[in-house]
């Protein structure tokens, strides 16, 4: 651990051969055996032709651009319909679900269509957001942070939510009571450290975070950091090795004189 | 009879015969000869480097448009932005000359790796803000096809600067400037501090400023390797060697007031190889001085500072290496996971390292206590006498701690005003500086690299205006003092 760090430790998984890999990028860390994948033709040609390399570069940039497009900040909508309407529209467009106060959950169906009636009550604050499996990233959080009275936020399995995004959640500290980060591949213990701003948090789910290096120890440290919060997801004994089996000692018996 | 003639161990069966053995008695190393002939034939074929006489692959090329002296994070950042902002793909040939490819003494690898926006100068704040967004999107900026993405291990825990009574007013005005530039910094009173961080002893603290976003620390080695990899994929050449000489030409010109001025132009850079007298003269158009702690030597080679003192010719580059220690200790009851990088009123700082109750920190010595920068030996007494008492006062849990290890690194310290030098030299017209950042070079490297690339390619600063950082301020005496140096 003493610096200088002499070797580059790359924790994140290898790029998939296919260009769709930008989403797979956030997938679970592949075990060593899977590293030797069959190379695709494009990969093979990249080593020989600059044009193929440029083409793959362009496709990669296009994938990243698509994610950016999805996470635009809806400032015009906010002016028209207020922060709650704009935030709700953003979540629903991404494929998540929204619950306004005293109303039912609004979810898009499998074709991505959702009921437009929430525009009628966009003065009502949004109480809960379920953004599981959405492509929300750092810029997209702009829209989410407008929901000042949000009580429950679920970011399960969001592949673009990372430590930087967690450092941005502090404006919701007054209202947020429930947060779920289960299955986010880019969240590590460093991002969890900046959740200490959320002092009203009552339930935090940090199960199945592949980027956390020591889940048991992280659970203990997060519990210490947020004393009023119930931290769920990791058994603190996970990762502890059981010692060698010992003969049960009878400590109650008196020492023979 | 054939078997008798065959050299021992070479024949593998009755029928293997080596050419020439029919005549018997030959002890030619025919195998070696054949492989040498094959190598020569291969080198003549297209696609291979044709070097029949001697191997010069370790030498830099004979011509290069831009030569960057110094391969640390600043030099690589300039190389990256030069390639990113060039008007046409492959327009600029860039060569990075680095003396030590293990980076054993380079400030980048030995750095604590912090990034913060809590400065007093708007330019510094803008540079740090841009660098934070660069690091956040590093896998878009430095994406290389088929290479794994970079994991910077960024801790977004922020910086906590403490101010005593007499510094409180300055801190408030600094925070106002920071907020104007867009940094998210909050001011805390001693009560709020105690509430948030119960392990702190607020004696002597009047005000604290806490960075909420875009501040923290990361792995500088990862950034360096990422930049190196990307820059190599963009076509920048690397060379391991030392710059020993500049060959330049001078031209005498008259200013508008009819005063004579001698302008110099560097034509060649002599790059000497390690542990040998061999050198390669590299013809170049532009030289970038990003040599960090040794920038003054490179500047002296170009003739900067040779003249009567008090004149522009006689103004030297006031950057010198200053040794700084960093200590790593273990304290089981220390501050928890939410600990920011705390900078005390006395100048001592510390931060958490990892999950296991390890901390690292240090303190900048005063001018009188400056250690000798000749080597990177660590003085452990400095921790005992000058660092630990302040830490133990600020965080009572640190009264029991155990030092695990320590290291030392150089600051490329600008003795004039502790801020960087960026931009061209007024007299040596094709030497550009990107050095002298006195401990915050790493966190400003992306912004500074872009600024120097803009200056080289377009002739002026476009995104962040770093004109207060030009070399001429040393001659004109215009100090731009940065107060928040840790």
Automatic annotation (TrEMBL), chain A:
<dbReference type="InterPro" id="IPR032675">
    <property type="entry name" value="LRR_dom_sf"/>
</dbReference>
<protein>
    <recommendedName>
        <fullName>Distal membrane-arm assembly complex protein 2</fullName>
    </recommendedName>
</protein>
<comment type="similarity">
    <text>Belongs to the ATP synthase subunit s family.</text>
</comment>
<comment type="function">
    <text>Required for the assembly of the mitochondrial NADH:ubiquinone oxidoreductase complex (complex I). Involved in the assembly of the distal region of complex I.</text>
</comment>
<comment type="subunit">
    <text>Interacts with incompletely assembled mitochondrial NADH:ubiquinone oxidoreductase complex (complex I).</text>
</comment>
From TrEMBL, chain B:
<keyword id="KW-0813">Transport</keyword>
<protein>
    <recommendedName>
        <fullName>FAD-dependent oxidoreductase domain-containing protein 1</fullName>
    </recommendedName>
</protein>
<dbReference type="InterPro" id="IPR006076">
    <property type="entry name" value="FAD-dep_OxRdtase"/>
</dbReference>
<feature type="domain" description="FAD dependent oxidoreductase">
    <location>
        <begin position="65"/>
        <end position="455"/>
    </location>
</feature>
<dbReference type="Pfam" id="PF01266">
    <property type="entry name" value="DAO"/>
</dbReference>
<keyword id="KW-0285">Flavoprotein</keyword>
<keyword id="KW-0274">FAD</keyword>
<dbReference type="GO" id="GO:0032981">
    <property type="term" value="P:mitochondrial respiratory chain complex I assembly"/>
</dbReference>
<keyword id="KW-0812">Transmembrane</keyword>
<keyword id="KW-0560">Oxidoreductase</keyword>
<comment type="function">
    <text>Required for the assembly of the mitochondrial membrane respiratory chain NADH dehydrogenase (Complex I). Involved in mid-late stages of complex I assembly.</text>
</comment>
<keyword id="KW-0496">Mitochondrion</keyword>
<dbReference type="GO" id="GO:0016491">
    <property type="term" value="F:oxidoreductase activity"/>
</dbReference>
<dbReference type="InterPro" id="IPR036188">
    <property type="entry name" value="FAD/NAD-bd_sf"/>
</dbReference>
<keyword id="KW-0999">Mitochondrion inner membrane</keyword>
<keyword id="KW-1133">Transmembrane helix</keyword>
<keyword id="KW-0679">Respiratory chain</keyword>
<keyword id="KW-0249">Electron transport</keyword>
<keyword id="KW-0472">Membrane</keyword>
<dbReference type="GO" id="GO:0005743">
    <property type="term" value="C:mitochondrial inner membrane"/>
</dbReference>
<comment type="subunit">
    <text>Associates with components of the mitochondrial respiratory chain complex I.</text>
</comment>
């Amino acid at each position: 651990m003493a610096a200088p760090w002499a070797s580059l430790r790359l924790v994140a998984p290898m790029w998939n051969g296919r260009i769709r890999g930008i989403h797979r990028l956030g997938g679970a860390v592949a075990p060593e055996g899977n590293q030797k994948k069959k190379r695709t033709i494009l990969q093979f040609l990249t080593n020989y032709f600059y044009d193929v390399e440029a083409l793959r570069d362009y496709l990669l940039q296009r994938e990243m651009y698509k994610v950016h497009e999805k996470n635009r900040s809806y400032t015009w909508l906010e002016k028209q319909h207020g922060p709650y309407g704009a935030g709700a529209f953003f979540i629903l467009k991404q494929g998540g679900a929204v619950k306004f106060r005293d109303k039912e959950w609004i979810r898009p169906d499998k074709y991505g269509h959702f009921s437009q009636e929430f525009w009628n009550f966009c003065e009502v604050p949004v109480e809960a957001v379920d953004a599981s499996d959405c492509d929300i990233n750092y810029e997209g959080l702009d829209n989410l942070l407008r929901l000042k009275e949000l009580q429950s936020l679920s970011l399960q399995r969001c592949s673009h939510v990372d430590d930087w995004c967690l450092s941005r959640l502090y404006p919701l500290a007054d209202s947020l009571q429930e947060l779920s980060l289960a299955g986010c591949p880019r969240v590590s213990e460093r991002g969890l450290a900046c959740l200490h701003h959320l002092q009203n948090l009552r339930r935090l789910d940090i199960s199945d975070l592949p980027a956390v290096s020591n889940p048991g120890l992280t659970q203990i440290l997060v519990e210490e950091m947020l004393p009023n919060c119930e931290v769920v997801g990791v058994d603190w004994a996970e990762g502890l090795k059981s010692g060698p089996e010992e003969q049960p000692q009878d400590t109650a018996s008196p020492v023979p004189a | 009879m054939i078997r008798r003639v065959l050299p021992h161990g070479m024949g593998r069966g009755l029928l293997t015969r080596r050419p020439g053995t029919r005549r018997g008695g030959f002890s030619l190393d025919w195998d070696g000869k054949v492989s040498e002939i094959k190598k020569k034939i291969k080198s003549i074929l297209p696609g291979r480097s044709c070097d029949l006489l001697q191997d010069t692959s370790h030498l830099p090329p004979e011509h290069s448009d831009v030569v960057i002296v110094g391969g640390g994070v600043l030099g690589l950042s300039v190389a990256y932005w030069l390639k990113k902002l060039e008007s046409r793909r492959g327009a600029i040939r860039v060569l990075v000359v680095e003396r030590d490819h293990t980076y054993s003494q380079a400030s980048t690898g030995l750095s604590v790796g912090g990034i913060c926006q809590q400065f007093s100068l708007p330019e510094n704040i803008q540079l740090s803000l841009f660098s934070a967004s660069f690091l956040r999107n590093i896998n878009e900026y430095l994406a290389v096809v088929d290479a794994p993405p970079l994991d910077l291990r960024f801790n977004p825990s922020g910086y906590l600067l403490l101010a005593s009574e007499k510094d409180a007013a300055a801190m408030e005005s600094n925070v106002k400037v920071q907020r104007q530039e867009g940094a998210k910094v909050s001011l805390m009173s001693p009560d709020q501090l105690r509430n948030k961080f119960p392990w702190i002893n607020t004696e002597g603290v009047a005000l604290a400023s806490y960075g909420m976003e875009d501040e923290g620390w990361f792995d500088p080695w990862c950034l360096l390797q990422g930049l190196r990899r990307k820059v190599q994929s963009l076509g920048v050449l690397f060379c391991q060697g030392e710059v020993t000489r500049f060959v330049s030409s001078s031209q005498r010109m008259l200013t508008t007031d009819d005063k004579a001025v001698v302008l110099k132009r560097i034509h060649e850079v002599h790059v000497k190889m390690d542990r040998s007298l061999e050198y390669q003269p590299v013809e170049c158009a532009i030289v970038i001085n990003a040599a960090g702690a040794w920038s003054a030597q490179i500047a002296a080679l170009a003739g900067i500072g040779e003249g009567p003192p008090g004149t522009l010719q006689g103004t030297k580059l006031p950057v010198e290496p200053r040794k700084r220690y960093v200590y790593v200790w273990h304290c089981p009851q220390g501050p928890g996971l939410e600990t920011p990088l705390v900078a005390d009123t006395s100048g001592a700082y510390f931060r958490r390292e990892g999950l296991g109750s390890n901390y690292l920190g240090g303190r900048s010595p005063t001018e009188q206590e400056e250690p000798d920068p000749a080597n990177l030996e660590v003085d452990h007494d400095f921790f005992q006498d000058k660092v630990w008492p302040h830490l133990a006062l600020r965080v009572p849990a640190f009264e029991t701690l155990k030092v695990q290890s320590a290291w030392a690194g150089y600051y490329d310290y600008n003795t004039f005003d502790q801020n960087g030098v960026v931009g061209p030299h007024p007299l040596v017209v094709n030497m550009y500086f990107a050095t002298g950042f006195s401990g915050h070079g790493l966190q400003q490297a992306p912004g500074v690299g872009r600024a120097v690339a803009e200056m080289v390619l377009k002739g002026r600063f476009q995104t962040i205006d770093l004109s207060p950082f030009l070399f001429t301020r040393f001659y004109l005496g215009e100090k731009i003092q940065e107060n928040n140096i840790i």
